[in-house]
Specification:
By secondary structure, the chain is mostly beta strands. It has one domain: Beta Barrel (Porin), CATH 2.40.160. The protein has two helices and 20 strands. It has a 16-stranded antiparallel β-barrel with strand order 2-4-5-6-7-10-11-12-13-14-15-16-17-18-19-20. The protein has a two-stranded antiparallel sheet with strand order 8-9. β4 and β5 form a beta hairpin. The two termini are 40 Å apart.
């Protein structure tokens, strides 16, 4: 059996599910004259998708923005302060969308009154992702000030998996604000379900911070940051050995100043990719809780992928991941997610067509209380500009 013939057939089938992207412009970055010596570049992406969700009690078809990545616009400023110091700035915002991916809300009860869809969900507002200024020295590293990634952001999600922006390894990455429903023909009491946090990880995020990144030493870099609720440190590595590309990171974040229950979070991940197109990823993250706190979350996830040029549109990628999260919501609970996806690059217009299926389950650790499995099926497109 010819594997490429089989894969080509699979791509054709997936294309029937995926939403077609409008061929508007080719992928580009537009320079803008701004009246001074700094350069200004504007770019971004438009993401639209369909999501079908079924928690065993309620089901709903949503049309909205992307889930693991969203529509956004960015402005990048660059200039030269001195011969050795460059200055840069980044403003990036998620722009308003009706029924944004994060607003998906399949109800946990037997009524459908709180199920959101495009008819009832109001537009979301502008959301600032990054607003920072960077000072980069040729040999001493980079100092960054403002709202952006703290040291360690992304350290638990290092990956070369095809379609990684759309294929989150955890259930939280595709469930949105939806809920697992209690079994036994549904529950009518509001709030009886368990949210998607039961299937998440503990990767750091973005905050107002001061951050310093060292220069790269043989592919190894160190980052430290200070934010309102504590400090974070991360080690990152990237390199290639023969036909194998490697990316790895580890982090520690002190959160004791902003939490009475969680002192810190820590973890790391690694991804590899062979020139043949095969890739793999593994990650681990957890909480370090205060004395007397019973809930101490842990997440382990891993996956494999394959990417090849099967059509003249661009590369085609397939991915499978598994994730398990313990004690994220309650003592002795566990959430699991299996996730498969396909992603088709469209090089001529800077777009992606993607589709996927995720099955999540949750065990609450309480005798006699069971939860139905949660299904998410999605298809969408991203157009870069």
């Amino acid at each position: 059996m010819n594997i490429k013939t089989v894969l080509k057939t699979s791509v054709a089938a997936a294309a029937l599910v995926a939403i077609s992207a409008p061929a508007v412009v080719s992928q580009a970055e537009a320079g803008i004259n701004n009246g001074n010596k700094n350069s200004l570049v504007m770019s971004g992406q438009i993401v639209r998708a369909l999501f079908y969700q079924d928690n065993g009690n309620d089901s709903q078809l949503f049309q909205g923005d992307g889930r693991n990545t969203k529509s956004r616009v960015r402005w990048i400023v660059s200039g030269q302060m001195t011969e050795s110091v460059a200055i840069g700035g980044l403003v990036e915002m998620n722009f308003p969308n009706s029924n944004s991916g994060g607003a998906l809300n399949t109800n946990s009860t037997s009524t459908t009154t709180s199920v959101n869809n495009g008819e009832v969900q109001t537009d979301s507002g502008w959301q600032i992702r990054h607003s920072r200024v960077d000072f980069k020295h040729k040999s001493l590293g980079t100092l960054s000030i403002g709202q952006s990634s703290i040291a360690g952001d992304g350290a638990a999600t290092q990956s070369f998996m095809p379609g990684a922006p759309f294929h989150g390894t955890t259930g939280a990455a595709v469930m949105g604000n939806s809920h697992f429903a209690v079994s036994n023909n549904g529950i009518t009491a509001a709030g009886a379900g368990v949210g998607s946090a039961a299937s998440g990880n503990f990767d750091p995020g973005r905050e107002d911070r001061v951050r310093y990144d060292t220069p790269s030493f043989g592919g190894l870099k160190l980052a430290v940051s200070h934010q309102d609720n504590g400090q974070s440190v991360a080690v990152n590595y990237g390199g290639k050995f023969g036909g194998v590309q490697v990316a790895a990171a580890a982090f520690y974040e002190n959160t004791a100043a902003g939490s009475t229950t969680v002192d810190a979070s820590l973890g790391g991940s690694a991804g590899i990719k062979h020139d043949s197109g095969l890739s793999a990823q593994i990650s681990y993250s957890r909480e370090d809780v205060s004395t007397g706190t019973l809930i101490e979350g842990r997440n382990i996830s891993g996956g494999i992928g394959y990417e090849a040029n099967l059509t003249n549109l661009g590369s085609t990628g397939f991915a499978f991941t598994y994730s398990t999260t313990d004690e994220s919501v309650a003592n002795n609970d566990e959430g699991e997610t299996f996730h498969v996806s396909v992603n088709q690059n469209v090089d001529s217009v800077g777009a992606d067509l993607y589709a996927g299926f995720a099955r999540s389950s949750y065990e609450g650790g309480v005798a006699g209380v069971n939860y139905d499995d949660f299904t998410t099926i999605y298809a969408g497109t991203r157009l870069n500009f």
